[in-house]
Amino acid sequence: MALSLARRGIAATVIEKRTGFGELGAGLQISPNSGRVLDGLDLTLPLKRVAVSSHGLVIRRWNDGRALLEMPSHPERLTTPYRALKRNDLHTVLLDAARAMPNIRLVIGRGVDEITQDETGVSTTLTGQNGQWESFHGLGLIGADGLWSRVRDLSGDASPPVFTGFEAWRALAPARATGTPRVNLHLGPGRHAVHYPVAAGHQTNLVIVRRASEAREGWTREGDAAVLAQHVAGASPDLRALSAAASGWQVWSLFDRKPAAMARGRIALLGDAAHPVLPFLAQGASLAIEDAAVLARLLAQALEAEGARGVPAAMAAYATTRAARVARVQEASRSNGRTFHLGWPLSIGRDLALRRLGGDGLSRRYGWLYQWRDA
Which residues are known catalytic residues? Predict the structure, then answer.
């Protein structure tokens, strides 16, 4: 968000509660819809150094690894390929670019404690880990602080996240000599797995989602590899071998949350703070990047035309512009979650439907998603 604003000549202050920038977790996927935004910020070359361009998707059965559907992709023919990379690599690329911008200020180790807004702007009181506090004032405030958003709570929407009954186990494994880099998705009863190369092809990101009897709040916790090994005991030999090679397991309880009002006066929310997306469509990061592009464009237009008084209208226009798309992505992700985890005999119908649909059919089905461009 800060980069999108700064490139349009708008100064931004980034406030991070943790004492350092970085991202826990293993990998993520940047599809062409959000990749176009990053390319537009002149990040193509730094991303190329750390990302892997995917050559497609293979959907497989859990128990034997048999392919149900193959959707090829040809990154060499695409202006914007489908990229896979480590989360902390993306953060490093963004942080390096932000540090190079003179109109971006980085403030770390500060949490938002209070927010007030009036016709002149937004005032924010921050509290540090040592109990000290300080205040900031700006034309607007953008909350991009995730599912457990403090900005969302303080701006008037404290509806709690709801546990989905699933948890995600994430880890990295050494790269495997499997030829063409692709995303592999394994579907099983009450579970699924996805893996793809990251770190410029030097590692493999593995995520296994399974049912869980209880939720644990918070960002992450360490996972026991022995527990995971029991869970994949009935999986295909390739998936078992990959799981055994992975290390540093981290576990997330998966929560959903109803969409928030994406704008209230001079306060806006983006990404999971506004509209959490379950990880069954690989669009959480991409939607946040789209949000940032749209909001930055509308703010720049409003400031040029009306000055500071145009900020609330720009925020409102952003909420209106994004509402239908984010709702559609959220529902598509929830639908995938239901389909991925079907048990016998419903899984038989699902597998037959996937074979009939084929790679070309799946590509057409998600054309609305990946072909998105900002106005």
Answer: 196
